[in-house]
Amino acid sequence: MFKSIRPVVFKRGLKVTRPKLSNLNQWKTIVQILTGAYIGGIIVISGSLYFIYSDANKRQPIPLELNINDQVNSVMAINKDEVLGSPRFASKHYRALLVNLYKEIYPDYKETNGYDIPILDYQALLKKNTKFVNFYIDMVLRYAKTLLAKGESQISVSILRRIINDDFIFENLADPEKLSNGSRLLSKITSDTNEKEQLLNRSIAMLSSAFNFQVKDNIIQNMKLSDELLFCLNDLAFVYAKSGKLNESLTIYLSNLKILEEIKTSLENGKSQINYPLFNCNSENITLQICSLKAHISEILFAKNYKDKAIQMSQEVIDEIFYDYNSNPNVSPILINVLHNLKAMYKKIGDEKEMSKCQNMIDGLPLFDADLRKSFYDEMISKWSKIIYELGPIGIITKPLSERYGPKQRIKELEEIENE
């Protein structure tokens, strides 16, 4: 028998020389570098976008049920409005968002040109969850504010009235303090004194009901209050003063001053923020609130012919905050107003020496630099926002790289990048 013969297979060996191996390693290194740069770029871009979203969400919680387009409009509106301080540029995003939300419920709505928008009624809002309702009402109020910055006061007033004058929405839906804030805004821009008083009294009653504040005849009965309640009472006192009701105005101001001084004393004696959960117990805030009240009380006292007491109270304010002028942006309007009022008081009593002293203090005030009060976080979020609007998310990487090998480039403002 014949044996089977196996076919002869010729094997060709692959011989890798050192030069080829070296080239292969070089390509491998290059691929690894490119892959790392690509992944790193994705991480940085995603992280920067999430940073912007997270910041906007902290300022006003954004409902997850919004579609991606509405979420983008929400973030851009809040960012341009609060972070970059450009409400005129935020208005288009607020409007697009609010019109889209209306169309989702009423798809037959035909959009028109102009700044006016349709507003969801309480029946539509009742079908939504609390987070959405709070978000929606806040967006409407924000949009109304941006219209004031654009000079569209009539439309702004119309939008505010549709929200504020709806009793069911005002008393039962959304965040009471934000609704009250919108009511105070409306009271500032309306010219009717009776409407101003009505709006503020309504806000005080609503806040008292919502948070169980004890307020009788516009006087707080205990130390339970919130910043918004205090603002409403102070605004009402201001309206009274402007309309000649000096006694009513002075009563409210003095009552609020007494409450704040009692809170300040209690905090110095060991109580903390937890005892006043709705009020900002920061010592700086309390000091400025007290000084602001004293400034108003001083004006009323002088008008009621208590000139010495009025001058003394204004001087107390100056002594308290004069040296904080250049480091605190909130001090500036109070201090300058008090100095001018004090100068006017001395002019009326014919004291030219003290008048000259007040003028010298005004002239000697250093140039105020608001950037001194910006935190690292505020500066970063503002800088990143501007870069992203100008160069896109990739600009977070490309800008510092280009500046490392070339001249530093100025970050452009929104006005230079886009139209309103």
Automatic annotation (TrEMBL):
The chain crosses the membrane at residues 30-53. The keyword Transmembrane applies. It comes from the Eukaryota. Keywords: Membrane, Transmembrane, Transmembrane helix. It comes from Candida verbasci. This is Uncharacterized protein. InterPro entries: TPR-like_helical_dom_sf.
